[in-house]
Design goal:
Keywords: Aminopeptidase, Hydrolase, Protease
CATH architecture of the largest domain: 3-Layer(aba) Sandwich
GO molecular function, one term: metalloaminopeptidase activity
Organism: marine sediment metagenome
Distance between the termini: 101 Å
Number of strands: 13
Protein name: Cytosol aminopeptidase domain-containing protein
Number of domains: 2
Number of helices: 12
Shape: elongated
GO biological process, one term: proteolysis
């Protein structure tokens, strides 16, 4: 998809479809007023006749003739006094749903001048451009890698975003949204990839590729022998029953000064969880691959922001930091034995016993105190 900002007047920008906002009450955004004037008051007439709705996320597609645009998409944005970013996003989601599989190849979106409630950071045009970019990437997502029959390609190929300026600050704000959306989509790709492909070794390869593609990211991968040498026996025990070896990934994002203390994110990723396989219904087993979703999420957003090259005031504090990400990857399968014995860092023996089929219960081996059996005193009765 080709995304770009556009600061030309609407009437001087040709597109297959123009998108404008329609509030329930109050003044219209300048872009809506401009479009209505160019169309001879068409939007005003349609609203008066009740043919278009201004309720939040309502959509009305109107064919046009002899205009710079072949069709007009009117998006309801509700009331001005009740339009937080979440409601504005609802309108953006509805807009994208109407456009993504439609006949338009080129779309001009004129929504960045729609008022949004909240603090200054939410109301600014830069914030709205970022939200538009993130929502577009999010809602245009598809995953067809493993389908034998691919769906037909979408006609939509170019999206223009109307903005007051196309300078550096506006471009970086919009690119920040696109980068965040792409990071979300990359996380989805990893989560949707089947576990016979997306196993610990494969995920470690993806992390290494990030480092090779971006100078600001450094990645170290520890295999099972290295983990064993460091005494990471409890981690290794998780994947002991699987044919897929475990991995420990350490990623470093260098955005701040070398002496700055880093933010550290630590987590785990289970690429497939067969715990309680005897109880889980077959319909839900495929969802066990999502146990590793959080571990990939914490790195993908950082990756895409790095890829976008954003180091401006829009996201300055976030990017100019040092971040360490440490996460353990295992494929949790039922072990051969009912009880596995592991030695943790403290060198204490820890027993993992499957008392509950869906949960491995770890307990430190130590004697259990028992109470003496109570004895009933015999009593005699006189007749």
């Amino acid at each position: 998809m080709n995304f770009s900002l556009n600061s030309k007047t609407l009437v001087n920008t040709k597109a297959d479809c123009l998108v404008v906002a329609l509030p329930e009450k109050g003044d219209w955004p300048a872009s809506t007023t401009e479009a209505d004037s160019a169309l001879g008051g068409l939007i005003s007439k349609l609203q008066k006749a009740g043919d278009v709705s201004a309720k939040i996320a309502a959509t009305s597609l109107i064919p046009l003739n002899d205009q710079p645009w072949s069709r007009l998409l009117v998006i309801g944005t509700g009331k001005d006094e009740d339009r937080p970013p979440s409601s504005f996003r609802k309108a953006l989601v509805a807009m994208t749903g109407s456009l993504k599989d439609g006949p338009s190849k080129t779309v001009l979106i004129a929504l960045s001048d729609t008022p949004v409630t909240g603090d200054d950071s939410a109301r600014s045009e830069l914030a709205k451009l970022s939200l538009i970019g993130r929502t577009l990437e999010d809602q245009l997502y598809t995953f067809n890698d493993f389908k034998s029959e691919k769906p037909p390609a979408r006609k939509l190929s170019k999206i223009l975003i109307a903005a007051s300026d196309t300078g550096k600050a506006h471009k970086e704000a919009f690119n920040l949204g696109l980068a965040t959306g792409r990071g979300m989509n990359f996380t989805r790709d990893l989560g949707n990839t089947p576990p016979n492909i997306c196993h610990p070794v494969w995920l470690a390869e993806q992390a290494s590729k990030m480092a090779s593609d971006h100078d600001c990211i450094k990645t170290d991968i520890l295999d099972e022998k290295q983990m064993q040498k460091l005494g990471m026996n409890s981690l290794l025990a998780v994947g002991r029953g699987s044919s897929q070896p475990s991995r420990l990934i350490i990623m470093e994002y260098r955005g701040g000064n070398a002496k700055d203390k880093p933010h550290v994110l630590v987590g785990k990723g289970i690429t497939f969880d067969t715990g309680g396989i005897s109880l889980k219904p077959g319909a839900g087993m495929d969802e066990m691959k999502y146990d590793m979703g959080l571990s990939v999420k914490i790195v993908t957003e950082r990756l895409m922001k790095s890829k976008a090259g954003i180091y401006s005031a829009v996201d300055d504090q976030y990017n100019q930091t040092n971040v360490y990400v440490v996460y353990h990857l295992s494929n949790f399968a039922d072990a051969k034995n009912d009880t596995d014995l592991a030695k943790a860092f403290e060198r204490k023996e820890t027993k993992f016993q499957r008392k509950d089929p869906d949960e491995a219960v770890a307990e430190e081996e130590k004697p259990v105190a028992t109470k003496p059996k109570a004895t009933r005193k015999k009593t005699s009765t006189k007749e």
